[in-house]
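Lab manual, section 2.4: Encoding a predicted structure.

Procedure: take the sequence of the chain (66 residues), apply the prediction step described in section 2.3, and record the output as structure tokens. A sample record is shown.
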Amino acid sequence: EYQPKIPYPARAKQAEAKEQFSKFLDIFRQLHINLPFIDALEQMPKYAKFLKDILSRKRKLEEVTY
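Recorded output:
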């Protein structure tokens, strides 16, 4: 049976991406780490790209948080 394609697939993908990002933030809020500050500074280069990717999205975190 023929099923027509949705007229604006980008909108559906964008909504799905927002939902996934919201779930990610929910999990991230629940994350608690006990790590000495010096160890955290040593590991920062490993996570720099990850943090840059999150921050460069320029999403309105106020909409998703609390």
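Check your result against the sample. The helical segments are 9-30, 37-56, 61-64.
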